[in-house]
């Protein structure tokens, strides 16, 4: 039974392809640029563009299961093609930004508006579906690498507010379990890493791996706005990043505000990878 992995050259898709190949599964990997894919030899690399669904029928031939990277503009047509080709199971790379309280005819946040149409198309397809509603990726902190390499600091805001970021390989591990195993149909999995960690602690963890004293420098909102504008960041992204965390409740502090999900361990049978493990996997990027 062949599995088609879309987004196969992406941070999650690349791990998923490798994990499926390692599990001895027939894997087809979709990319817009097959010559540059650089995927494991055991995967069949095929060309195709999710924004141009007419390019997909050959990639879908003989496919029973699909991992779907979110391209909302064409999701409905892509799913229609998949169902016609015989796909019976679809696992969606979605986001914790999806909010089930937002009505179907309302837009919602950027993340909701990007992912929910894809989830909806899959839910209506009459296939077994699983949504991976992933929270923040640990991988986002790769954005710090140029500043850390050059100056040993990261400048930002909310350095003491924690999150529970997830290793991209764990998103892939849950995807592999949902694609290959039973009991995941109809699940909307909220996925996080194993523990809360603040940006200040993340920078310290990178420093420990490098043997360098690195520092998170807290900016005022005006300083941050000014810096990010000069770096060419779009204003809506800047305002999104400049959110003010609520005051920590007296009982439990910030830990009471941020959820750590047990789903990675429950679904895969292994603890979710820690931020220190993620840093060990990416330490060369920070040197
Ligand atoms: N970063 C976060 O904190 C976070 C949190 C929750 C959810 N998410 C969601 O996770 C997803 C990102 O996953 P990722 O990091 O694995 O992705 P990624 O590293 O950005 O890679 C996505 C891959 O998708 C492929 N792709 C893009 N457009 C395509 C198209 N039109 N047709 C075919 N392939 C296309 C590209 O491959 P080719 O160039 O080879 O075609 C690319 O390598 C997004 O939907 C994001 O919203 C992210």
TrEMBL record:
Xref: InterPro entries: Ergot_Alk_Oxidoreductase (IPR051604), NAD(P)-bd_dom (IPR016040), NAD(P)-bd_dom_sf (IPR036291)
Pfam families assigned: NAD_binding_10
Alphabetical list of Gene3D superfamilies matching this protein: NAD(P)-binding Rossmann-like Domain (3.40.50.720), UDP-galactose 4-epimerase, domain 1 (3.90.25.10)
Domain NAD(P)-binding: 7-179
Source taxon at top rank: Bacteria
Protein name: Hydroxylase
């Amino acid at each position: 039974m062949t599995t088609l992995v879309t987004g196969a050259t992406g941070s999650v898709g690349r791990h998923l392809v490798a994990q499926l190949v390692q599990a001895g599964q027939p894997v087809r990997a979709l990319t817009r640029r097959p010559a540059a894919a650089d995927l494991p030899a055991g995967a069949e690399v095929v060309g195709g563009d999710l924004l141009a669904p007419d390019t997909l029928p050959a990639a879908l031939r003989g496919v029973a299961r699909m991992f779907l990277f979110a391209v909302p503009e064409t999701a409905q047509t892509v799913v229609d093609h998949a169902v016609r080709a015989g796909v019976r199971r679809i696992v969606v790379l979605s986001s914790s930004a999806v909010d089930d309280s937002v009505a179907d005819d309302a837009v919602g946040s950027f993340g909701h508006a990007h992912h929910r149409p894809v989830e909806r198309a899959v839910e209506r397809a009459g296939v077994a579906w699983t949504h991976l509603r992933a929270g923040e990726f640990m991988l986002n902190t790769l954005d710090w690498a140029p500043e850390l390499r050059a100056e040993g600091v990261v400048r930002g805001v909310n350095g003491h507010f924690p999150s529970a970021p997830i290793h991209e390989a764990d998103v892939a591990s849950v995807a592999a379990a949902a694609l290959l195993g039973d009991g995941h149909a109809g699940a909307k999995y909220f996925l996080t890493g194993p523990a809360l960690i603040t940006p200040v602690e993340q920078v310290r963890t990178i420093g420990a791996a490098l043997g360098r004293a690195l520092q998170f420098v807290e900016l005022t909102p005006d300083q941050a706005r000014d810096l990010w504008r000069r770096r060419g960041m779009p204003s809506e992204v800047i305002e999104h990043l400049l959110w003010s965390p609520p005051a920590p409740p007296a009982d439990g502090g910030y830990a009471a505000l941020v959820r750590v999900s047990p789903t990675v361990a429950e679904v895969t049978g292994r603890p979710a990878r820690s931020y220190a493990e993620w840093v060990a996997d990416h330490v060369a990027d920070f040197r």
